[in-house]
Amino acid sequence: MILGPKQQPRQRVTVLGSTGSIGTNTLDVIARHPDRYSVHALTAHTSKEALLEQCLLHRPAVAVLDTESDAAWLRQALKRAGHTTEVNAGSEALCEVARDASVDCVMAAIVGAAGLLPALAAAKAGKRVLLANKEALVMSGALFMDAASRSGATLLPIDSEHNAIYQCLPSDHRDGLAKHGVRQLLLTASGGPFRGWSEEDIAKVTPEQACAHPNWSMGRKISVDSATLMNKGLELIEACWLFNATPEQIQVVVHPQSVIHSMVAYHDGSVIAQLGNPDMRTPIAYGLAWPERIDAGVETLDLFQVARLDFEAPDEVRFPCLGLAREAMQQGGVAPVVLNAANEIAVDAFLQRRLSFTAIGQLVAEVLSRPANGDIGSVESVLAVDQWARHQAAGLVTRWSA
Ligand code: NAD
Ligand code: MG
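A: This is the predicted complex of the input protein with magnesium ion.
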């Protein structure tokens, strides 16, 4: 056991997806508190140079990349620099660093369905799971929540909205929102970069425009999701699982300043909100230190500079993805898995300029309308549905981009 200056054991952390936007912010917070945290493992898909830099700085016991050839490159580079980090490759290696007995806390910050198995491995192993990878919950919410409750894992939401709601709810909220006098969860949305744009202009949107979010700096996939409002749809599903809520108990509120990160409305008329500068280090630090509070490197909100807070209803006609996600959750079963998979393929095709921005929602709607077989009773069956929907979506991309 390693003891820091405060004579408390340091938490050993695995950061899945450490080279991404959430991953680098996590390492920023960890580096501010060397007495509290040590890094067990860092992982990346293909960004081997970025992972090398992180390994040199944070000295993890293990690093993981996707392919064996990238892993061999990193192994050599670290050896030359005199480091003893073990370097592995592939998805089983990701699960291993998530469930390793020496690990206390796992930041699940891989983007998309690729993050499901390692996040689930952490939940099954009873870790403190800091969940950024919302797609994992969208695909397998029931399995995930069940695994966490069986193992006694502590699940802390990192998505800023869910982290805000978590902070505004009593700690024992999982036994039913009604019991705690909750009327509604108010999920805030910035509205994305194209809020108020005409349908004609939205149809011509480029990947560069979609990735330039007005308030948050994020990875490319979630930036596109924010622009289509699919991100809010995925978050609605995520909130249903995390807080044991129905889609009807969640109201999406467009709040362009992104200062209120979400709210909880209670039956007595109280509305409790969490506010802060739009900086993901706040929810990350909350998750790392919970139930304590630590410095996240984030300035206190200057309310005089904010000056005003605006609210409006989401435009579900110009941005149909939010409605598609709500319907998928209401339908239940495999529908959220199909929604997520079709969206991942459509966003990828948009980023490769093979699909227009407007076609993202159209493609997701088309795949959702097709009869899907399968069930969500096991992770294998979830992944089979995911593969089926990806195949359907890829076929449509080929046809629509021809
Ligand atoms: P990102 O694209 O910046 O980073 C993704 C990370 O995952 C990288 O380290 C990448 O190497 C790794 N990765 C990608 N594909 C992989 C694969 N197939 N196998 C293994 N590793 C893979 O993404 P991000 O913006 O940091 O988002 C990460 C997750 O957090 C997403 O699920 C996103 O929805 C969620 N999230 C992000 C933010 C944000 O502000 N960025 C906010 C809320 C939630
Ligand atoms: Mg969010």
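Residues 20 and 54 are 12 Å apart (CA to CA). The mean pLDDT is 96.
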